[in-house]
Every structure is written in C-alpha cells, then in structure tokens.
TrEMBL record:
InterPro entries: ATP_F1_dsu/esu_C_sf, ATP_synth_F1_dsu/esu, ATP_synth_F1_dsu/esu_N, ATP_synth_F1_esu_C, ATPsynth_dsu/esu_N. GO terms for cellular component: plasma membrane; proton-transporting ATP synthase complex. Keywords: ATP synthesis, Cell membrane, CF(1), Coiled coil, Hydrogen ion transport, Ion transport, Membrane, Transport. The keyword Chloroplast does not apply. Residues 87-133 form the ATP synthase epsilon subunit C-terminal domain. The lineage of its organism: Bacteria, Bacillati, Bacillota, Bacilli, Bacillales. Pfam families: ATP-synt_DE, ATP-synt_DE_N. This is ATP synthase epsilon chain. Residues 91-118 form a coiled coil. It comes from Insulibacter thermoxylanivorax. The gene is atpC. It is a peripheral membrane protein. It is found in: Cell membrane.
C-alpha cells in the first residue's frame, strides 16, 4: 500500500511523525479519510480522535483537541491546539474534567457561565476518555 509522511504537532512538541497509509480526522464538515497522493487542502479540525493506519497494519489513535490539517505533496501535517497519545492521558483527571464541564453546563442557564467554553471543555474531556479507551 502507498504511504505518505504524517506529522502531528502542537505548539509545545511533535506528538507523532512517521509513514502512514491512511489518516482519519474529523473536520468541520465531517469525517475525512486521507490516503497517499490526496489532493492538497487545508481545513479546521473538530475536537475528536485522529486515527492513523501504518504500513505494518497498526492503528494509532491520538486525542486531538482542535487545530488544522494540511495536505500537500504527499505530506500531511496536523497542527493541533493540543494532542495526547493514549498512554499520556490521565484518566482520573479527564473524568473530573468531564464532571466539572457537565456541572457547568447544567448551571449555565441560572448563572452567567460561558456555555461555549463549558461545551468545549466537555468535548475535550470526552475525546481524551475515548482515546484512552474509557469513553462513552
């Protein structure tokens, strides 16, 4: 199977770099599957797991919390606001963050709480839990 170079980077570090046969991301218009020799494009990403299929038939999952994907010249770069590998995720911390965000959303109508910010926090927590294998 044909491959392409993939990098997942955040402002702090390079999270992943290697050859891939396919990467599956969730853009603002829906799910995208990118394979070798894909047409060039750039699009924003939603908070969602990124699935990477490698030449040796492995599949890696990374919790990506927004950003952009750029495809050009058989190279894919994901510029993420933040990204974590499954083994880096503190499950207890993510559970607590999910609970806090859900509580903020419940109180949003009675109090002056930034609903959008609470919703984004909830999405990030759920994304981390999914990638860590504990999500719903």
């Amino acid at each position: 199977m044909k491959t392409f170079q993939l990098e997942v980077v955040t402002p702090e570090r390079k999270v992943y770099s290697g050859d891939a046969t396919m990467v599956i991301v969730k853009g603002i218009e829906g799910e995208l599957g990118i394979m070798a020799n894909h047409l060039p494009f750039v699009t924003p990403l939603q908070i969602a797991p990124v699935r990477i299929k490698t030449p040796d038939q492995d599949e890696h999952v990374i919790a990506v919390n927004g950003g952009f994907i750029e495809v050009h010249n058989n190279k894919v770069i994901i510029l993420a606001e933040s990204a974590e590998l499954p083994e880096e995720i503190d499950i207890d911390r993510a559970e607590r963050a999910r609970e806090r965000a859900e509580e903020r959303l419940r109180r949003a109508k009675q109090e002056k709480i930034d609903y959008h910010r609470a919703e984004m926090a909830l999405q990030r927590a759920i994304n981390r839990l999914r990638v860590a294998g504990r999500g719903r």
